[in-house]
């Protein structure tokens, strides 16, 4: 070896480039910007530009502890990032299999900003460090997959026979690379961009070189699957998520694309690796804390659900003041959650003003001190709602998208946008006293879901001001009590139910039902036979939270 | 020769457009931003996906830049300040800019990745929408100038800008210009939220720098075309001609960049439906009305 790594002072040009890289940090946020906002931090305000793909990012920001499945996905994303790159852990201890974080910070805006300063220093000094370690993820290598030579939509992880024609499956890499020239010519060979969703467009080589003298469309498409419009195209299986910018973080979908139409959508096998529920049983005093950690997007609702079930088991009833304070806390979370959804929806729609404004309001609401500030924000939220209502092209974009089939099991805003007044809050004493009436609209599409959520933001903020408190009181049941308890809470996404068995002051068994677990079944009907963008809008309009889909 | 001043002006314009774009998208005005991000991209690895169509992957960004540069060659910055004063200049602008579609389809196909491919073919559909109205609007502009030479087109507007003489054509052309530059709400091929970057998703390092430069040059070129065809080119009081061209071009570019922030992305089927059912009839109507005006009132 003539040249090798050696510590030396880099040239002025390298130093200049490294300093520029330090100023221009782009972040790929894991699990996603909406989780960062829900946890009260704003990477954008700290000077990190948010990248849509790991390819355009230099910093992987991990926000909060992640379940194992998401950590693996984050490692795949990191492997796809061009160097110089860094891992920035914000409130996360365990980031394996990612390399140990280059910079760590606690969860909080100030800590985040300090961390960014340290990141800049690191980039300015070490962007061209000769000993930068390699990072490779086995998942990328093993993602090759096996395909049927005749049915490119048949993809299996193991070798075997095609279920449609019985032919032996061939490795996808080989199928795509057979006609490729000189492997050695590729510099910087990288991942086939697997998990993040850059699937390969299968077997086109085979079709171009199929021994046909002339590229006859009839011959080429003869054995391809039939799509509903009669046009024959290659079908490709494309992963969307779990870290896709237009979908809730953690939701791993697989679309079978027929051109740009979603021929099939697969959602239910995609959500894996979440924290096991067994770990949640245990002492009753801390049960509410554990359950509220389940979903970072609506911790208050799950804390309340646990408190109510425990009280029910212990036979305690909260007093009127506690009831009102809970209304305040839950409604503030509902408004913040809807605003957070709105920001993510704006991102999907490419409506950047909405994305920024809703995100700002959501953070302001989360950081707000008391009902007075909430009342001020209510005015701004009303302004936002009116502007959204008057946005040109929006109605055309959303109307008729994401309609649900008759008899679909839905709850929360999704049900209320379909003309149903289903709302657990109607049966609650505290809400009745505040004169609560659910917002119900007809339409059953993405537009009416947007309108319901906009109206609910205003309604919730109004309820907060009238409840006069936003603190979350927890009533710990008397020690050592036993019994069975049941509770329901209308979370921002719909009805959540909890049944538990309390024995000697400890939760020994429980059963939980969440809105997102029910709504996950709606992904298929809202996305299949739709254009990709429409399918994504339909799915986003359901406001799924993969965190609460528990097994 | 006006080669050097025009190219320098174009690059300066591209730089300012990049500053404007950063300002619009982040809300922070950073005059040095494009230099820094360019340097940072040059210092970054430029990855090649595992099974690329190497020729398409490499050629896409370069072709995009070439296409925009070619179109700019016939756009005058001032009287006589033009690289080539072609007799068919107005048509040449359109012909050169068709390669934007070819470049994007190539960049979409090249990396062998699904998001990029969907993005590339989306732009093919987009071209089918906007390209007919663009040619028809240019035809009406040429009718008034009685010439296809871009300098003649500017001279024909000395008394009254085309934006006022044929406002319908102006509106259609502005929308088509934004679709051509794949700016929001017509950013279907790049669609950050839907396709995670689409055709640009797989480009990193210097290749991404070339793509971003090409896009900025494209925006300047198209804004300059709007200025030449509709805003009276270099005509204006007090300031020297080149300054008027620059001010108008930048104002058009700023308008195109800012407008997309306040509307959601257009759906692909609507995009095609609107261009064919509304854009083309409006462009035809424009030709008809301009014809009648030329016969009755005169240019």
Explained architecture:
The complex is a heterodimer of chains A (551) and B (299). Chain A is α/β, with parallel strands linked by helices. Helices cover 38% and strands 14% of the residues of chain A. In chain A, helix 1 (12-23) runs antiparallel to helix 4 and helix 11 (320-349) packs antiparallel against helix 17. Chain B has one domain (3-296). Chain B has helices spanning 3-26, 33-42, 54-72, 89-97, 99-109, 114-145, 150-155, 162-165, 167-180, 192-195, 205-230, 241-259, 268-296. Chains A and B meet through helix 1, helix 6, helix 11, helix 12 and helix 14 of A and helix 2, helix 6, helix 10 and helix 13 of B.
Instruction: Output the radius of gyration of chain A.
Output: 26 Å
Let me know the average pLDDT of chain A. 78
**Unreliable segments of chain A (pLDDT under 50, ≥5 consecutive)?**
174-213
Question: Spatial order of the strands in the main sheet of chain A?
Answer: 2-1-3-4-5
Assess the beta-strand content of chain B as a share of residues. Answer: under 5%
How far is the first residue's CA from the last residue's CA of chain B? Answer: 32 Å
The helix tally of chain B amounts to: 13
Radius of gyration of chain B: 19 Å
Oligomer: heterodimer
CATH homologous superfamily heading of the largest domain in chain A: Cytochrome-c3 Hydrogenase, chain B
Number of domains of chain B: 1
Average of pLDDT of chain B? 88
* Main sheet overview of chain A: 5 strands, parallel
How many DSSP H or I helices of chain A? 20
Number of strands of chain A: 16
Q: Helix fraction of chain B?
A: 55-70%
Largest interface: A-B, 67 and 60 residues
């Amino acid at each position: 070896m003539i040249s090798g790594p050696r510590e030396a002072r880099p040239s002025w040009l390298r130093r200049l480039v490294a300093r520029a890289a330090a100023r221009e940090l782009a972040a790929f946020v894991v699990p996603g910007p909406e989780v960062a906002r829900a946890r009260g931090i704003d990477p954008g305000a700290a000077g990190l530009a948010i990248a849509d793909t790991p390819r355009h990012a230099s910093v992987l920001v991990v926000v909060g502890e992640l379940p194992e499945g998401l950590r693996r996905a984050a490692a795949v994303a990191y492997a796809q990032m061009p160097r110089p790159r860094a891992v920035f852990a914000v409130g996360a201890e365990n980031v394996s299999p990612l390399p140990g974080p280059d910079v760590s910070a606690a969860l909080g805006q100030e800590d985040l900003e300090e961390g960014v300063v340290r990141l800049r220093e690191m980039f300015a000094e070490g962007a061209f460090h000769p000993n930068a370690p390699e990072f490779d993820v086995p998942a990328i290598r093993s993602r090759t997959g096996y395909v049927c030579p005749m049915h490119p939509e048949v993809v299996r992880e193991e070798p075997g026979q095609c279920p449609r024609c019985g032919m032996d499956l061939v490795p996808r890499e080989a199928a795509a690379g057979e006609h490729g020239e000189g492997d050695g010519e590729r510099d910087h060979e990288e991942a086939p961009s697997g998990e993040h969703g850059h699937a390969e467009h299968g077997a086109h080589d085979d079709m171009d070189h199929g021994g046909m003298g002339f590229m006859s469309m009839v011959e080429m498409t003869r054995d391809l699957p039939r799509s509903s419009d009669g046009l024959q195209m290659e079908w490709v299986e494309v992963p969307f998520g779990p870290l896709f910018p237009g979908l809730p973080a953690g939701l791993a979908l697989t679309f079978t694309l027929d051109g740009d139409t979603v021929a099939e959508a697969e959602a239910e096998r995609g959500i894996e690796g979440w924290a096991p529920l067994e770990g949640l049983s245990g002492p009753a005093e801390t049960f509410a804390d554990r359950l509220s950690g389940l979903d970072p997007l609506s911790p208050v609702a799950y804390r309340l659900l646990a408190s109510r079930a425990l009280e029910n088991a212990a036979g305690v009833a909260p007093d009127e003041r506690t009831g009102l304070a809970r209304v305040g806390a839950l409604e503030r979370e509902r408004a913040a959650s809807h605003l957070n959804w709105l920001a993510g929806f704006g991102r999907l729609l490419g409506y950047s003003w909405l994305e920024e404004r809703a995100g700002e309001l959501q953070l302001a609401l989360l950081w707000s001190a008391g009902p007075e500030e909430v009342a001020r924000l209510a005015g701004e939220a009303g302004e936002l709602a009116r502007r959204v209502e008057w946005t040109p092209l929006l109605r055309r974009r959303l109307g008729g998208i994401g309609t649900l089939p008759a008899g679909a099991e839905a709850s929360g805003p999704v049900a209320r946008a379909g003309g149903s007044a289903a709302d657990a809050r109607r049966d609650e004493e505290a809400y009745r006293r505040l004169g609560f009436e659910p917002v119900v609209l007809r339409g059953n599409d993405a537009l009416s879901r947007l309108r319901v959520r906009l109206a609910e933001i205003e309604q919730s903020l109004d309820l907060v001001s009238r409840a006069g408190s936003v603190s979350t009181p927890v009533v710990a049941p008397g020690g050592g009590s036993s019994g069975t308890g049941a509770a329901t809470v209308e979370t921002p996404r719909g009805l959540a139910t909890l049944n538990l068995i309390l024995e000697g002051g400890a939760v020994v068994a429980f059963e939980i039902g969440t809105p997102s677990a029910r709504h996950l079944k709606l992904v298929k009907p809202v996305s299949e036979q739709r254009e990709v963008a429409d399918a994504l809008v339909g799915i986003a309009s359901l406001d799924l939270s993969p965190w609460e889909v528990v097994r | 020769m006006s080669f050097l001043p025009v190219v320098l002006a174009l690059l300066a314009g591209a730089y300012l457009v990049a500053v404007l774009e950063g300002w619009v998208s982040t809300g922070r005005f950073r005059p040095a931003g494009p230099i820094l991000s360019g340097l940072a991209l040059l210092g970054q690895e430029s990855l090649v996906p595992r099974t690329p169509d190497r020729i398409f992957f490499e050629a896409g960004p370069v072709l995009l830049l070439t296409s925009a540069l070619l179109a700019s060659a016939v756009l005058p910055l001032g009287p006589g300040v033009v690289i080539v004063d072609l007799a068919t200049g107005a048509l040449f602008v359109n012909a050169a800019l068709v390669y934007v579609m070819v470049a994007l389809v190539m960049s979409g196909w090249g990396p062998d990745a699904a998001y990029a491919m969907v993005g590339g073919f989306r732009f093919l559909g987009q071209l089918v929408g906007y390209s007919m109205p663009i040619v028809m609007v240019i035809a009406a502009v040429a009718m008034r100038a009685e010439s296809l030479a871009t300098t003649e087109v500017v001279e024909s507007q000395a008394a009254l800008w085309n934006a006022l003489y044929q406002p319908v054509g102006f509106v259609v052309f502005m929308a088509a210009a934004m679709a051509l530059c794949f700016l929001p709400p017509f950013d279907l091929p790049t669609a950050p939220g839907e396709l995670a970057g689409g055709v640009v998703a797989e480009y990193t390092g210097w290749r991404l720098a070339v793509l971003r430069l090409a896009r900025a040059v494209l925006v300047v070129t198209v804004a300059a075309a709007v200025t030449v065809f509709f805003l009276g080119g270099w005509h204006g009081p007090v300031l020297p001609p080149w300054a008027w061209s620059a001010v108008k071009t930048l104002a058009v570019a700023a308008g195109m960049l800012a407008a997309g922030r306040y509307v959601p992305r257009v759906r692909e089927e609507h995009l095609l439906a609107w261009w064919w059912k509304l854009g083309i009839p409006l462009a035809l109507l424009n030709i008809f009305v301009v014809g009648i005006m030329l016969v009755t009132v005169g240019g």
